[in-house]
């Protein structure tokens, strides 16, 4: 990828390296982190080199009665106004510049606009959220409705204590996992994987590990809207999954319906709460209709935030035969492996390059009980 903003825009810090060089560096860094626990070759799952991001957020910069997309400068002291952005998906790409043109000929739409967020799918479904420092009224809604038609996109307007959904607040995604299609509703401002193609590879890797090493019933912590849970559920008779976000649980249940999957029990609780429930430290009214004792959990998948796993959760998952750990922060993954490898061995490891042109890495390991 060649971008005229390389060296200025803070989104791409590895702009001086070829993609192959970036990948080699990341793989070497991950290999060093995992060396105390795993000495085999780590497979790297690559990204497309451009048009790979399904999500994007831009600041809106105002100058001389015109507006521009802006990103923070590499030095973090200023902003760079953008003339191109080759990271974002083609569905976003073909709408974002037309949207900017329409902003600049309509005072109603650009008045006190400070940010725009895009969410797209591989099915060309796009949701655009426009952020304002003012109350939105009927006049704004009429103009924004025209935008929906002109851009073939869904529009949401947000300001303080106000959210206006003109049509729908989600995009519909279809992922191909080992030759089978899975359908997902991705809601505005909910967590979704940013790189669709790498996400498919990541799910396939997790499914294949569960197929090779899985035992008993399956459990997933930090399940989100079912990104991993749905495809993996086909391998198990019974599945239980937890997620703290109410919106994500709602989406996960909708996604089960979309895919005719009925063997997953979703619970809205944190991993810490689920640990307390399984170990009977506390009782929870939200579990009154769920018999946890009926689950013979042998395989667990965790996909925690950057902080990694808390001590209680590490203690809990170390009791299961198979652990699949997806990490967005290999440093905390390595820290957690110091505990998990007291009871388990790492059988496989992978690098998922969700964020080309940055130092960010995502990784996966599968562990089996000694």
Automatic annotation (TrEMBL):
InterPro entries: MeTrfase_TrmA_AS, MeTrfase_TrmA_CS, SAM-dependent_MTases_sf, TrmA_MeTrfase, U5_MeTrfase_fam
Amino acids binding S-adenosyl-L-methionine: 193, 222, 243, 303
Keyword list, A-Z: Methyltransferase, S-adenosyl-L-methionine, Transferase, tRNA processing
Gene Ontology CC entries for this record: cytosol
Catalytic site: 328, 328 (nucleophile)
Gene Ontology BP annotations: methylation; RNA modification; tRNA processing
Annotated GO MF terms: rRNA binding; tRNA (uracil(54)-C5)-methyltransferase activity, S-adenosyl methionine-dependent; tRNA binding
Keyword Nucleotide-binding: no
Family that this chain belongs to: Belongs to the class I-like SAM-binding methyltransferase superfamily. RNA M5U methyltransferase family.
Protein name in UniProt: tRNA (Uracil-5-)-methyltransferase
Phylogenetic placement of the source organism: Bacteria, Pseudomonadati, Campylobacterota, Epsilonproteobacteria, Campylobacterales
């Amino acid at each position: 990828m060649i971008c005229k903003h390389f060296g200025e825009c803070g989104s791409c810090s590895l702009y001086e390296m070829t993609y192959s060089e970036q990948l080699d560096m990341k793989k070497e860094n991950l290999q060093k982190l995992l060396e105390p626990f795993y000495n085999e070759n780590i497979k790297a799952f690559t990204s497309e080199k451009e048009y790979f991001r399904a999500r994007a957020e831009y600041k809106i910069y105002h100058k001389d009665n015109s507006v521009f997309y802006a990103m923070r400068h590499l030095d973090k002291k200023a902003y760079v106004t953008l003339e191109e952005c080759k990271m974002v998906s083609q569905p976003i790409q073909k709408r974002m510049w037309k949207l900017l043109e329409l902003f600049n000929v309509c005072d109603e739409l650009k008045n006190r606009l400070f940010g725009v967020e895009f969410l797209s799918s591989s099915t060309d479904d796009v949701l655009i959220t426009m952020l304002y420092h003012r109350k939105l009224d009927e006049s704004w809604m009429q103009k924004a409705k025209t935008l929906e038609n002109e851009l073939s996109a869904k529009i949401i307007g947000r300001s303080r204590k106000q959210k206006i959904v003109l049509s729908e607040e989600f995009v519909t995604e279809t992922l191909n996992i080992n030759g089978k299609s899975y359908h997902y509703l991705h809601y505005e401002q909910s967590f979704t994987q940013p790189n669709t193609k790498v996400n498919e590879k990541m799910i396939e890797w997790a499914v294949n590990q569960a197929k090779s090493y899985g035992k008993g019933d399956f459990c997933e912590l930090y399940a989100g809207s079912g990104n991993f849970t749905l495809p993996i559920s086909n391998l198990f008779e019974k599945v239980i999954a937890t997620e703290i976000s109410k919106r994500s649980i709602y989406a996960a249940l909708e996604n089960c319906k979309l895919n005719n999957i009925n063997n997953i029990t979703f619970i809205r609780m944190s991993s810490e709460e689920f640990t307390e429930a399984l170990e009977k430290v506390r009782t929870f009214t939200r579990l009154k209709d769920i018999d946890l004792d009926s689950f013979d959990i042998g395989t667990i998948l965790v996909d925690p935030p950057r902080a990694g796993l808390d001590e209680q959760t590490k203690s809990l998952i170390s009791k299961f035969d198979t652990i699949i750990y997806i990490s967005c922060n290999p440093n905390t993954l390595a820290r957690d492996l110091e505990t998990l490898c007291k009871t388990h061995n790492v059988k496989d490891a992978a690098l998922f390059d969700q964020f080309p042109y940055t130092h960010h890495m995502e990784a996966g390991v599968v562990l089996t009980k000694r």
